[in-house]
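SAMPLE LOG
Freezer: B-3
Tube label: C17
Construct: single chain, 368 aa
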Amino acid sequence: MRIRSSSSSSLVGFVLTALALCGAAGASASNDVQLVADTTAAADPRFGVSYRTAYRVEIDENGALFNRFTVHVPDSGGMPEAQRAGRFLAQVWRAANRRFSTLASGLRRTPVDVWLTRTGDAGGEQFRTNLYIYDFASERTGIEWARELAHEYGHYLLPGASGYTSPESWSNGVLGERLFLRWLRDDLAARLISADDLPYVKPGDLDDFCAKQSAPLTDRVRNNGPDLAALERTDKKGMDAFSSLMLYMDDMYGPKSLLDLLDYLDPHSAVGARGVDFLSAFQKSIASSGSGSLRLDTTRPDMVVLPAGVLELRADGGGQIAAAVAHKKIASGAGGILRIKRAAPGWLSLTVAGDGKPVRVRWKRVSP
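STRUCTURE (predicted):
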């Protein structure tokens, strides 16, 4: 990553050398993200307060730099925090882009403005294409900073159910914390980024957060299928059930499944769709598909939803694969190939023999 000035009269006034080149072999170089210091005065759209300094976060795509965020602070004293926030958001953007690419219009529609205020109660808010972090100088741990920024960007970028009474009305902020931080953890493990690319958190922080906040919720649906009664609730348990469904979809069917369901999501009311509407849309999306892939565990059965028809499933590696409904085996196949006939779309459990590592199972509908 490089920090440079947008004019000779700016606060920085010169180009600094790279702050942190990636130390791990195979990790991507961090000079595809540049922070450009800007002293052009700007007023935030919600409160009309003037901000005198900012960092533009420019991210390389195919050899060209594009402004994806502008992080504003009231004065030069906030520039170090603006730099850290910009670096973190750049990696969240890159993680989302790896998974959504051009399917998520919010990634490229317009630069997102981030306003770090010295006023208000510590916390955050999303307003249109603006993210507010209030009282940024108050004491926060690194993981609190990461969660706050991921939360507000989740409100901006991710689909979400609404109408909740606790902890807030919209669910995509909490989902952003649980999803984006898991993606960053996975990208670190895959050496797509290095630990030096991320401010605020270390790999162990992300591992700990995901073990407590993401994995248990994902496992709920993997083990038992969706909890319809919980998805109908509007309290914290209902929001957790929504997160469980979306985290499961991302993990089992891949990130694009979170966007594919939007084509099947009917307008619900003035306040938006509820958790049960997302479940219905997801099931309709799978029911209309002719093929797909699943990321199954090999230490336990996994609950999945599949369409109607004669289906052929192939497990990478050739381990034995078996299907069951309500714990009753309906089919089993050796050599990693299984054919089953489904009279109607719905949920069933799949088991694949393996070495304990996740395995990819590819399915296709060979006849209606």
